[in-house]
Amino acid sequence: MNLKETPVIQAHGLSAVFPNGNGGLHALDHVSFSVHSQEFVCVLGPSGSGKSTLLRILAGLLKPTVGEVLYHGVLLAGPRQGIGFVFQKANLMPWRSVLQNITLPLELRGILQAQAVERAQEMIELVGLQGFEQSLPRELSGGMAQRVAIGRALVHDPEVLLLDEPFGSLDAMTRERMGGELLRIWQKQRKTVIMVTHSISEALFLADRVLVLSQRPGQLKLDISVDLPRPRQESMRYTARFGTLAQQVRASIGEA
Ligand code: ADP
Ligand code: MG
After folding, report:
1. Minimum CA distance residue for ligand 1 atom 23
2. pTM over 0.90
3. Pairwise CA distance, residues 9 & 112, whole Å
4. 116 phi/psi in degrees, rounded to 5
5. pLDDT digits (tens, 9 = 90+) for 119-165
6. Which mutation among 14, 51, 52, 53 tests ligand 1's pocket best, with the greatest number of atoms within 8 A of CB?
7. What's the 41 CA to ligand 1 centre distance in angstroms?
């Protein structure tokens, strides 16, 4: 990471207030941070602390009430091709096959069918779904559906990948495996990743940095570097350093 480079994402004093006929619901409060190219950042915080709201703002899907997001130093005014998004639920088109779900964003952009299929095949290999190209979403496990969603988000090669609790609905074992897969993809493709999770150990295992939001309205409570060596190994979860970091994050969430 080159700290002198312009950050890929700069969040400046982001606040979000939703109208509720009652003075407004204050979801996010003056949140500022920067994310550099190829950083892997995890966001943690209690439920309702504005994590999804923050991610939607970073995706250009929601305009902050106050503050601004700069993408490569330029005001972000709406969704950008360079910023991909994965939600908690895969949200696949039920009548489309795995392959067709992944080609969809390319079709919407008018890319030729043959090219779209070729590119989607690469994604299918990347996320490890070879042999399931023609399967329908209902034939897939939760983990496989999330792989499709990740493949779909990566298909137009976004520079930034935003993930909102992408493994939230998966069991613990699948979740760990998916985390490992995501690390592999990140290492191979060198994306900038911002991921919301509610798992402290998942965040520490994956991220270079962990941000913690306070109870609503979400304020940035903690921004720490995860100084564990890479590549990350399962055994690191049992090291003293991992334990110390986990304690620090847990304390921050606890007093959030
Ligand atoms: P988190 O993802 O951390 O659980 P959210 O960002 O989803 O939190 O929500 C933060 C707060 O903002 C919650 O109280 C939620 O009910 C409220 N909120 C989120 N989106 C909207 C919306 N579109 N309209 C009104 N209130 C919303
Ligand atoms: Mg959320």
Report:
1. 18
2. yes
3. 31
4. -60, -45
5. 999 999 999 999 999 999 999 999 999 999 999 999 989 999 999 99
6. 53
7. 21
